[in-house]
Amino acid sequence: MNKEDDLKLLQGLTLKTLTVVMMQGVNFKPHPYVIGTGHVGYAADHYNGMLSEDAIRDAERHGIHCAQRGCRLPYDQHTYDRAVFVRPTTDIFTYAEEHNGQIPEDTHDDLLALKTFVETNKIRVDGFAFLDPSSEEKAVTNE
């Protein structure tokens, strides 16, 4: 499955104290792979305009590489971690400060359920991040 399918699956999970907001690439190494005009042209000419991972890899075999200045690393050597961002329904940050670093038991149970769901469904997740429950911010994904 791709990232969008994984996210839909996660967002379909019913949890009492957490809402899955987004999935995003973080910790890019050495940097995000940069798509250039050569990739776009290659995909247009050979993949009906679909700029897929297969199109990128095939373009590399034909001399079209990462468009980041000076980068010659192949697509597969541009790595990142995938994080799932969750928003708790209550302020677990203040709770943890007041309770020796502990989070509420029902939130702990939901985190374990989320972890089990990810493992059972073989969803690639490298970590979880908590969003401030009082904010409605939505991050833009760049994965």
Q: How would you explain this protein's 3D organization?
A:
The protein has 143 residues and is of the alpha+beta class. It has 2 domains: 3-30 and 79-130, no CATH class; 37-76, no CATH class. It contains 5 helices and 3 strands; from the N terminus they run αβααβααβ. It has a 3-stranded mixed sheet. It is elongated. The protein starts with a helix and ends in a 13-residue tail after the last strand. Residues 139-143 have low confidence and may be disordered.
Gyration radius, in Å: 19 Å
Structural class: alpha+beta
Helix/strand order, N-terminal first: HEHHEHHE
What is the terminal-to-terminal distance? Answer: 15 Å
Quaternary assembly: single chain
The percent of residues in helical segments reads 25-40%
Biggest beta sheet attributes: 3 strands, mixed
Summarize the structure.
The chain is 36% helix and 18% strand.
Q: Which tags fit this structure?
A:
alpha+beta, 2 domains, 36% helix
Q: Would you spell out the secondary-structure blueprint of this structure?
A:
Blueprint: H1 3-11, E1 18-29, H2 37-46, H3 53-61, E2 79-88, H4 92-98, H5 105-120, E3 127-130
Parallel strand pairs: 2-3
Antiparallel strand pairs: 1-2
